[in-house]
Structures are given as C-alpha cells and as structure tokens.
Amino acid sequence: MTTPRTATGPAVPRKRRGGRPGGGELLAAAVGAVPGGAARPGQQQMAEAIERSIASGEHLLVQAGTGTGKSLAYLAPALTVDGPVVVSTATLALQSQLVDHDLPRLADAVEPVLGRRPTFAVLKGRHHYLCLARLDNSVEEEPEDTLFDAPRPGGGTKWLGEAGRLGKQMQRLRDWAEKTATGDRDELDPGVDDQVWRSASMPARECVGATRCPFGQECFAEASRARAREADIVVTNHSLLAVDMLAGRHIVPPHKLLVVDEAHELADRVSSAAQAELEPQLIDRSARRARPLLRPELAERLTEAGDALAVGLAEAPAGRLTAGLPPALREACTLLDAATRAALESIGDIKADDPDPVRKQQAKAALDELSTTAQRLLEEADHDVAWVEKPENGSRRALVVAPLSVAGTLATHLYDERTVVATSATLALGGRFDTVARALGLDAPPPAPPSPAAAALATAAAAGRAGTTPPVASADGSRAATGTVPATEGPGWTSLDVGSPFDYARQGILYVAAHLPRPSVSGLPEAAGEELLALVGALGGRTLGLFSSRRAAQQAAELLRARTDLPVLLQGEESLPLLVRRFREERESCLFGVMSLWQGVDVPGDSCQLVVIDRLPFPRPDEPLAAARAAAVDAGGGSGFAAVSVPIAAVRLAQGVGRLIRATGDRGVVAVLDSRLETARGYGPFLRRSLPPFWYTTRPDVARGALERLGKS
Asked: pTM for the whole thing?
C-alpha cells in the first residue's frame, strides 16, 4: 500500500502495471455493478471535472442536484490519487450511506479494474470512542461525578430511579468494553445516555496521549487513526475537519485531495468548532475534578467564580452583548481567569512519575479551557461576538463567544497543500457561486449586472414557464427546465453546475401565494391557515409542512385536526425517525415540523406530493451571530440584510424546497405562503434563482387544480 505523504503540489494519479485506470473507467465499473445502473451525464461531467482538478491542483466548487449520484462521481476519481483521500460530510446520514453502502459497492466493482481491493476507514472525534482509562477511573468517580449529579433539563438533580437506570447502562457499557473491537459509540446497540457516555469517553483536550496513558496500547481512538493512515479513502465529518484545521492539521492523515460534501454547511461547523462558552455547571465540575490536586483555598476560589457567573447570568438578559460585558459578568470572568491561572500553576506539569497522569491531565485541560475562554471574553475583540444564552426551557444558562467570520480561517487553513473539491446540491445562490465561495474563504469576483439581452431572455423564459399548462396536469404543455448555473471562477478555483437528472419544470410546480398579506406576526396567520387547508384538502394529505416556528407548526396541526379527518403528525410528539416512517407509510398523512425537517426528510414517491413553507426562513433577529455579521456589514456601508440574511434564507429555502422531488417519478407542488417571494423586488428574484427550476405560478386556482388531479391519480 502506498504510504501517505504531505502534499506539496497537485495530487498525483495512482499508477499500476499495465496502465492506470482513469476516473471515468472506475466510474463506469461502479455504475455497471449497480442493478439497472446507467450513466448519468451530470455524474460523468462531475467526475471529469474532479480529474482535471486533481491534475491541475485547482480547487473546485460543484453544484450537483439531487439524483446526480455525486457520491460515486467523486469517489471514483478519488481512487486515482496517490495516498489517502479525505471525504468530509455534515450529517451522520450521509456518512453512514458512504460507509455502509457506497464504498463497499465501489470496492467490489473496481477491484477487477484496479487489480486490488481499495480500502476505506471512518475517522471520528476522540470522544466518539470508548476510553479505557476513563472507564477505569469512572468506578471511583461515579458517586460525585456528572453521571449522578448533572442537572436535568429544567433544573434539579436526578431522582433515585433515574440514577439506577443510568447505573445499569454504565454496567452494560463496561460489559461491551470487554468485547468491542472498535470502541465506536455508533456500534453500541442499544445505546446509552449522553451522561453515561461522557463518563467513559475522553475529549481530545483531556487526553494525556498514548505514550503516557496506561491503556495507550489498547486505545480505540488511536487505532482508528492508524486505520485511517493506511486507507485509500477516509470518511470524516465537518466538525472534526474544523477541529483539525484549528489545531494545526495533525488529526486527519496527510492527504492531497479533500472532498467536502454538503459543503454549504462547512462554514457553520467551523464557526461552532471555534465557539467557546462558560456556564456555572461546567466550572463546578472542573473545580470538583481539580479539588484533589489543589489546596482548599484555591478550590474555593474556583467555586466562588462559578457562583459569580451564575449571578451575572441571572441578571443579564438573553441575547447579544452589543455594549461589552455587563459589570457582573466582567467581574465573574476576571475572578475565573485569576482562579484558573492560580490552580494551573499549583498543579504544575505532568511528570513521568505522576501516579495518575490521566486524571491530572483531565483537570488541567478543563481549567485551561476555562481560563482561555475567560480571557477571550475579557478581551472583547472586534472579531468575536459574545452573547448570553437562556433557552426557554431553562435547561442551561451560558456566556458564549464565537468568531464574527470564519472566512479568513478557511482561507488560511482549508486549502493549504491540498486540492479541495466542495460539493452540494445548494452552492449557487441567486444563480451564482460567488456568495458561497466567499463564505468558504475563496476570492470571488463581485457579481456583474446582467446584460439587457440576458435580462430580456430571463424575463421571457419566466413568462413562458408561467404561461403554459401546469406539468402535473399535462406534461405535454410544460416548458423545459432552465439551464445550469454559469461557471464562476477566481484565483486558484473554478466552479461547475452539473444540474440534475430531474426535469423540474415537468415534475413540479412552485406556487407562491402572492395574494396573502405580508407575514407580520409570529405563528400562523389566519389567512395562511385557510390557504393551507385549501391546498391540503385539494390533495387529500400527503403534505410535508415546513414551518418557521414551533408555534406555527402546532397551530397548523391543530387547525387540520379540527377541520379535517386527515392524520396529522407533529414534530416533538414522537421521535423524528418514527414520524418520518409513519409519514412514508400512511399515504394520507401530513407531517408538520420546524428546521430539522428542512434537510432531514427523504420521502420519494406519492407519500409526499405537497411541500408547504409558511414563510421565508430568514434568520431570527435574536440569532446573535447572524445579527452581528449583518451589523458589521451595515457599519461598513453595505446592506447586512442582503449580505447575510438573504443568503442564509436562500440556502434554507433551497433545502426545504428540495424535499419534494427525490426521484425521477415524483410529481408535486411546493407552496410558499409568503408573498414576499413574489413581491419583494430586492431579494425575491435572488431567492427564486436559488431554487430548482420548477414551473412557476402565483395563481391559487392553478395550484389547487393540479393538486386535485394528483389526488385522483
């Protein structure tokens, strides 16, 4: 097997005796091995573009619509690269699809072509793996550690029956530790509560290192890294990729090609990885962990700092801190900084003859993180945003700090010494790649205004689509879908939209209820509720409702339950996987929910033929990061709403609209009950250009007629 090495130029094609198979040959073998598999032009186009990037070292943004088969389009050319290729995903669902389905089938299919069976491995964060050292120590820690005294949602401590249940889970975890080969939490079935897993896993910052740990030779996390170094393809996640970048690129194996799937989520994951927070419970746990190593007065100083933070958080309102830290929170951070520094100095360095280096490292890591966060908050840097978090259910109170932007971090750390292919079904916002390119740290040219001829052509095309017979009424009367997004490029990168195998203009309608009043109050307005009833009634169920708030989703569910006999499933009333399964199996059912449904539902076929969106998914005014970023743009003379809020809404809206057409035989209607998508001259066209090219109408009678015909089919 080829030994991985640090990239210093373009990725080198893998050679083998008798000639080297190219990505196209490997893709053909993979597609041919799928029952009924056929070549897809977009898939082939994407694979060829990736091969060109591999050869040139030029970074590539690829928008690949649902149904393109983009996983095989990047996995096949990845096997032509010398050394490991890293594939990063945002969701566990895609990671599981790659590891459990796509990669095993690809390995079977290309083995005769390559002359060997390619290998792959999964790389997760250290805390995803069982830590034998932590498990060994947990026997002594359980009576006082977080397993039995962590606060419950809503406050209070665990009652005796719950503690007993968790104790049984802990014993099952110990039994599993005796027989597991990987220590991967995802392989523990049934699983255990988060509190139990935390007591038997080790965050990276608390790890003493394999050489100092008494269980270093048996470490599951180290074994996973060793497997990744030897694999052809390494599958990881955006969160670990972000931590790797922020920690100096020493976690993920050296590689020359990085494929970022679900790339529209990468910037948010990097921002989350760079976020830090202080909460009283965390300080209390850290103080208890360090207490055996400290003089009593030093431990008491930590406790006092935690109490001061609790008082400061109780006094401060929730939301962004626009005028700096309030006095009480500033005092708490100052006390905490001094207390943690004194404690760290007292504990000192870890020595070779320390009787318990693991526990000492845990204590030091927790204190160091508190100290670093307190100092960061006290600095009040222009590049950071701070806010007070107080969830409505009262589960926790925290002081949080995060970077205003991660574009600079990505520009510095994402592209260095490797070729990056970023792909998603949602990369071209407003019909261009430049917005996402800039968010990913790439230099992108400003958008040029369309020429008069191009504007006239776009207007004529839109008018043509709106004037023909709706596709679900008569496919013969539909117009062809618009073409793919034009390529954008900048220094060292280029872009490509390979379209989709779906004929959106024939398969679906985008209906905007332009006659409804502009939404102004939270919840579901009465007029929007009546429109929802008419649309769902015309089809007879089969509706996925994507709402902007839990209140709106609940009001919609109550309305349909009161006025129809249709089964209505509401997010939160049962587990989400169970709700989705019922929605798929019960043909007349409706499923209503909030943001997690906008990306997490895949229901092809006639169980989902109407997707209703109650309002445009702009970030809420109280979302601290979005508000701070918009304010920074405003302060610079730009439009924060246009630069920040509109792109966020475009990504969310495209993801939600994408729930409708999941297969070539799907038909249906997307109904947006927010008239601004049609009437807002500034951002309405931008948002519509960010969506698949459905047949478009604002006429309610056309939408209801199409749904009635679908209901009878």
From this structure: 0.85
